[in-house]
Amino acid sequence: MIVRPARAEDAAALVALWNPWIENTAITFSTELKTETGLAADIATRGPAFQVAEAEGALLGLATFFPFRAGPGYARTKEHTIILSPAARGRGAGRALMSTLEEVARGQGVHSLFAGVSAENPEGVAFHTAIGFRETARLPQVGYKFGRWMDLVLMQKFL
Predict the structure, then answer these.
(1) Cβ atoms within 10 A of the Cβ of 81, count?
(2) What residue spans define the domains of the chain?
(3) pLDDT band at 78 (very low <50, low <70, confident <90, very high)
(4) Of 88, 76, 110, nearest to 17 (Cα)?
(5) In angstroms, rounded to a whole number, what is the distance separating the alpha carbons of residues 142 and 29?
(6) Would the pTM of this model clear 0.85, i.e. be above it?
(7) Are 123 and 159 contacting, i.e. CB atoms less than 8 angstroms apart?
(8) What share of the chain in percent tops pLDDT 90?
(9) Separation between Cα atoms, residue 147 and residue 136, nearest integer Å
(10) pLDDT band per the 50, 70, 90 thresholds, residue 137
(11) Which intervals hold domain N-acetyltransferase (predicted)?
């Protein structure tokens, strides 16, 4: 397995990887499906802040970071997303992606990373805890999907 910066030509595979999580799970509160055009634009804009894990020509997952909030006072704090294929879970791809993403973030002067994890995703909370993130807040009923309200767990890691 290798971790590398995402390329525009990865967009179709990333859509196929990401959209089932949006459509079928509560790990993301989003209901808006990703598009190849949108992901290609994100890849171009974020550059090395958009990484993928690949093995034998197949993408196993992605990790990317983006502004936590608008405004210059927040410039050194970022939020990230990590998405893995079901086959990649438990095989080290998540740790490898996050390790590389944290390296990129440090190189860009980022001080801390946030993860917004659905409380309905205990595996996501456990993963982030295992790699050094700590729960800083639990926001009740801020997400709505599948006809129900869901809590958001904010987790932070200082780099």
Answers:
(1) 16
(2) 2-158
(3) very high
(4) 88
(5) 9
(6) yes
(7) no
(8) 95
(9) 27
(10) very high
(11) 1-159
Q: Contact, 49 vs 68, CB < 8 A?
A: no
C-beta of residue 60 within 8 angstroms of C-beta of residue 88: yes
Contact 155, 136 (CB under 8 A): yes
* pLDDT at res. 89: 85
CATH of domain 2-158: 3.40.630.30
Structure tokens, 129: 């805890």
What Å distances lie between residue 91 and 53, 87, 158, CA to CA? 11, 8, 25
CB of 52 within 8 A of CB of 8? no
- Token pair 């990790």: residue: 63
Farthest-apart Cα atoms in the chain, separation? 42
Whole-angstrom distance, CA of residue 65 vs CA of residue 76 = 11
The tokens for 54 are: 């690949």
